Amino acid sequence: MKTWMRHRFMILLVFVIVMVAASATVWRLGYRQALTQLVEQGESDLALAADRLTAQLQRYQELAVLMSSHPVLTDLVEGRGSARDARMLLLDAADKTTALNIMFADINGRVLVSAFEGPDESLVKTPYFMRAMHGALGTHHGVSSKDGRRAFFYAAPSFAADGHVQGVLIVSVDVADVEDNWRGDGPAVFFVDQAGLVFITNRSELLLWERRDGDVGLVPPRGAAPPFRAYTQAGHELWRLDWGDYVPKRGLHLVQPLPIIDLIGEAVIDVSPAQRLAGLQAAVVAALILAFGVFLYQAMQRRQVLAEANAILEERVAMRTRALSETNVQLRREITERQEAEKALKKAQEELVQAEKLSALGQMSAGISHELNQPLMAIRQFAENGALFLQRGKDEVASDNLSRISEMAARMARIIKNLRAFARNESEPMGKVDLVQVINTAVELTTPRLRADRVLMEWNPQSYGGAVLAWGGEVRLAQVFVNLINNAADAMMEQEDRRISISIENAERLSVSVRDIGPGIEDPEKMFEPFYSTKAVGSSEGMGLGLSISYGLVESFGGRIRGTNTEKGAMFTVELDPWNEEKAA
């Protein structure tokens, strides 16, 4: 009797295993097939959205090309036309095409005429203008620092009779107007530029989100990053995310490069329909197997009824029922405990991932432009001087300049290496640093700018009688002093007398003072906050990141930086630990 019960239990167990395995296999195959179909549909939707965007921008590109050679504009640049007629022409075209603005500039980047209010500064350094000056169609996109508008720019050259470029027509497009007619339509689609910024999207909650270096997902411009996880299933990339009510919680990630407009189209397709379809298929298979099992079980019961008496059958049924009830209770208890353990583990994992992301978010570099600007300026100056020396036959001096360029290139490579290590939550190995040499480097990098702005630099390295050794990182410490020197020079631009002095106090704790004779620090409490600046809004040098970056770098060395107002001007002091053998060991 017990043997028969064991046989029945084994048959039931095998049946359950077969049913679960078959259902899971059908679900997996159905989900894979549904994902493939979803990929095809999603790629079609993404291609349709990309074609719609490029088609909407194409007409502004054609407008720039067609109007660049208009006689009214060519007469204006040649001195024969009327600025009023040219403005009425551009204003009429802007009204009919809903362009944000249409401008016509000469070869020096000066805006001759504009449909609406144009920029005050020259366009000569803008990428789209520079490309148009080479005879090609220039394109660019960006966010206005004045009103926060996102805009596309098309710049078409206007050629003179001799084939040279005599002017440039610029058409700017308001991106918000372009995406208004498809916002919220279809799946979640967003277009990311080369910097990782979401520039265009049909989900307004994702606008201006960004992809950090080495990351797959996106993070908002402000606040903590929401939970996100990327994984691969059936050869497709899937995202588990929480980016808002109108973005799927679990979606299929698709990508389509758009080199024409220098963007990358991405879409997140909801996989819930694929899951429901796969679940329905698995449920149908499970129901069929269950029906077959029930039929088989009934046949076995019928045979048992014929073989045994009714009394023995009722007793065995009662015993079996009690055993199954106890088993079910135990299974439910184990399932409940396992589910609770899985929930606790999942919550702990999510908290750990969130904490790690927040840590990385707080330590990533504020911008690469502050790290590479000075070496690039030095390379440019050495390259120009080297070309002049070659023309004059001074090969040895030119070779020295080329060596200096090589040194600066190696220096930039070290800077990039440090930034990459910083982004991976690593740091440049600290060790022995010669403060005199570091300040010499910073002064050398800023000398061209100080000379151009007539700023007197008071720095005498010979007075220290050799090296002053500190504990820190050479590249990042040099960047700190470059930032301090540039900030001091910026503060004195509105006055005639401009002077910066640098001195080192070699005591128990080393300190370097950078003093200017400017107006002083306006708000000492906020000077180290990111994006705090007293420069004019829209200034290319007014982002307010220099002191914030310097503060973080000095703190990473175990040092301290502070700024105070003096009787005339401001003084920033950097305190560092001196280098010694015991600390190095």
Characteristics:
19% strand; 6-stranded antiparallel beta sheet; 18 strands; Beta-Lactamase; alpha+beta; 5-stranded antiparallel beta sheet; Heat Shock Protein 90; 585 residues; 50% helix
Q: What is the β-strand count?
A: 18
The CATH topology of the domain at 427-584 is Heat Shock Protein 90
Beta-strand percentage range:
15-25%
Strand order of the largest sheet: 7-6-11-10-9-8
Helix percentage range: 40-55%
- The class by helix and strand makeup works out as alpha+beta
Query: What is the CATH C-level name of the domain at 427-584?
Result: Alpha Beta
Query: Low-confidence stretches at least 5 residues in length (pLDDT < 50)?
Result: 349-368, 421-426, 536-543
Using the alpha-carbon principal axes, give the shape: flat
Largest sheet: 6 strands, antiparallel
Oligomer: single chain
Radius of gyration (CA) equals 35 Å
Mean pLDDT: 80
Say which CATH homologous superfamily of the domain at 427-584 is assigned.
Answer: Histidine kinase-like ATPase, C-terminal domain
Separate helix tally: 13
In angstroms, what separates the terminal alpha carbons?
78 Å
The CATH architecture category of the domain at 427-584 equals 2-Layer Sandwich
